[in-house]
Design brief:
Layout lengths: L3 H15 L3 E5 L8 H6 L4 E3 L4 H13 L3 E7 H6 L2 H10 L4 E6 L17 H5 L5 E4 L4 H12 L5 E5 L17 E4 L5 E5 L3 H7 L6 E5 L1 E3 L3 H11 L2 E9 L4 H7 L6 E7 L10 H7 L4 H12 L7 E2 L1
Parallel strand pairs: 1-2, 1-3, 3-4, 4-6, 5-6, 8-9, 8-11, 11-12
Antiparallel strand pairs: 5-10, 7-9, 12-13
Helix pairs in contact: 1-7, 3-5, 8-12, 9-10
């Protein structure tokens, strides 16, 4: 199976052909995938070099001229390093762009901690007005990329990953999907976490929701699920643990409820390792998730519980 990032350049190259508003801004990373598109559209495919602050500034400038910029690099260089430009050049100026990342969390362990960004979604959550897509399959990535580019002049973040579920689902860029129904709790799996969650909850009487668009947070879907499954809620996110616990708490603020946020821990793992080892170390493998989810929905003590 190809990866989400394998889909990125072909999909956006077609959008460059289809829509004269679309522009692409790169910072060296990913430039080879746009070599042919750059020959066709030299004025709308820009490579600013290894200058990530300029990457965001150039994208904002293009947006202010009426273009729809698609801005791409690794997550740590797209969100963390130029965060001031994301906040001011895009946010403060109310300029829309599509930020498309790769290598979030620990997708490229050999790159070391400089190339890891498990806090990217949480960091964007400090800003107003961002839509955040977290596809779990290349087919979903293609759909959500098209949604993002077509979203007027909105600010959109698309988080691509080499981690993926075995099958794509029909996502719409808005709502959570109900994948399994139960009566003893709700588990919300985000993007690439779905397959592990389904394996972990096999035989458990829980509802499983699937989210590929986490901002805006689909509060209505979560509330509907709790009507039959109860108000014990577990969030399994492929980035910083607890990123969406406040959103879930807000959605259920008028109901007695418990929320457990699972995801990438704050402790830095100082060995490169493999992706699978990082997944296990953060307790995001199916075996660990089953213990943590099962203990929580059955009323057992769980250290990460958030009331």
């Amino acid at each position: 199976m190809d990866t989400m990032r394998d889909r990125f350049a072909p999909v956006v190259s077609r959008l460059l052909d289809e829509d004269p508003r679309v522009a692409v801004v790169l910072a060296e990373i990913g430039k080879d995938g746009f070599a042919e598109a750059r020959r066709r559209h030299p004025d709308r495919v820009l490579n600013v070099g290894i200058r990530e602050q300029l990457l965001i500034g150039a994208g904002a400038g293009l947006a202010l001229t009426g273009l729809r910029p698609v801005v791409h690099t690794f997550a740590s260089f797209l969100v963390e390093r130029p965060f001031e430009q994301v906040k001011l050049d895009l946010g403060h100026q109310d300029a829309g762009a599509v930020l498309v990342s790769a290598a979030g969390s620990f997708d490229w362990p050999a790159g070391g901690y400089t190339h890891m960004a498990p806090g990217d979604v949480a960091l964007l959550d400090t800003l107003d007005g961002w839509t955040v897509h977290v596809p779990g399959h290349p087919d979903e990535a293609e759909t959500l990329l098209r949604h993002a580019v077509a979203a007027g002049d909105d600010k959109v973040y698309v988080r691509l990953s080499v981690q993926a579920n075995a099958e794509g689902l029909p996502v719409d860029g808005q709502r959570f999907l109900t994948v399994r129904e139960g009566r003893s709790g709700v588990v919300l799996a985000v993007g690439p976490a779905l397959d592990a969650v389904l394996a972990a909850t096999e035989g458990l009487d829980v509802t499983v929701l699937y989210a590929t668009t986490v901002r805006p947070f689909d509060s209505a879907a979560l509330r509907r699920a709790t009507e039959t499954a109860g108000t014990d809620v577990v969030l399994v996110e492929p980035y910083l643990a607890g990123t969406s616990t406040a959103a879930a708490n807000d959605a259920l603020s008028d109901l007695p409820h418990r929320v457990l946020g699972l995801g990438v821990g704050r402790r830095e793992l100082r060995r490169y390792g493999r992706i699978e080892e990082h997944v296990a170390a953060h307790g995001l493998d199916a075996r660990s998730l089953r213990e943590r989810i099962g203990g929580f929905v059955s009323g057992g003590p769980v250290a990460e519980q958030v009331a």
